[in-house]
């Protein structure tokens, strides 16, 4: 790689390595090798590994919550349905990797807690907009989020046709 690397390039590579190989891959040397540069480039952009990890977690929060919420809000579909299709239809390797990381790292654990709260709050808002009372929206948002986490952390992907049927059933359950 001959062009100048940016901090963003390192963060993108870090997210790829995290999703593929887990949090132990988030080190300067293996990332530099994968990018074909010296690790000096890494330290040009990040004071230390902790600063890099913080930047990776910040980007994860942006793409795993804020970007999804912005996309859902911009869609012409019903927001809750759009959120479910997007969340349950996504590749979740990065989600699993960050949650695994959080079992070993306080900063990752804080990022997971923050994103969990943000996502649940957003789901509550969508349910309230559908006319549910606040207490009911809170309970159903929590249950829906637990359902997502179970899906995210479970085994092989569900075939698309079956997934669509499950999402329809889920919507019916939380809207009843």
Q: How would you sum up the global shape?
A: elongated
**Beta-strand residue fraction:** under 5%
Whole-number radius of gyration?
A: 18 Å
Terminal Cα separation, in Å?
55 Å
Give the helix level as a range of percent. over 70%
Total DSSP helices: 9
DSSP summary, beta strand count: 0
Q: What structural class should be given to the helix and strand makeup?
A: mainly alpha
* SSE pattern, N- to C-terminal: HHHHHHHHH
Largest sheet: none
Mean pLDDT: 93
Uncertain segments: none
Could you describe the 3D structure shown?
With 176 residues, the protein is mainly α. 78% of the residues lie in helices and 0% in strands. It has 9 helices and no strands. The chain has helices at 7-21, 28-35, 39-45, 49-74, 79-89, 93-102, 106-129, 134-153, 160-175. Helix 1 (7-21) packs across helix 4 (49-74) and helix 4 (49-74) crosses helix 5 (79-89). The longest helix is centred in the middle third of the chain and has 26 residues, at 49-74.
Keywords:
mainly alpha
Question: Care to give the gist of this entry?
Answer:
With 176 residues, this protein is mostly helical.
Secondary structure topology:
Blueprint: H1 7-21, H2 28-35, H3 39-45, H4 49-74, H5 79-89, H6 93-102, H7 106-129, H8 134-153, H9 160-175
Helix pairs in contact: 1-4, 1-6, 2-3, 4-5, 4-7, 5-9, 6-7, 7-8
């Amino acid at each position: 790689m001959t062009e100048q690397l940016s901090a963003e390039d390192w963060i993108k590579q870090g997210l790829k390595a995290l999703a593929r190989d887990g949090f132990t891959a988030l080190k300067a040397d293996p990332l530099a090798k994968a990018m074909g540069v010296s690790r000096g480039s890494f330290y040009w952009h990040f004071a230390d590994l902790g600063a890099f990890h913080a930047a990776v977690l910040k980007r994860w929060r942006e793409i795993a919550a804020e970007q999804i919420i912005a996309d859902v809000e911009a869609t012409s579909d019903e927001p809750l349905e759009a959120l479910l299709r997007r969340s349950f239809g996504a590749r979740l390797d990065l989600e699993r990797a960050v949650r695994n990381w959080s079992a070993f790292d306080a900063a990752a654990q804080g990022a997971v807690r923050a994103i969990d709260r943000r996502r649940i709050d957003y789901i509550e808002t969508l349910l309230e907009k559908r006319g549910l009372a606040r207490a009911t929206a809170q309970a159903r948002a929590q249950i829906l989020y637990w359902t997502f986490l179970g899906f995210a952390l479970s085994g092989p992907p569900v075939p698309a046709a079956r997934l669509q049927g499950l999402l329809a059933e889920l919507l019916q359950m939380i809207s009843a």
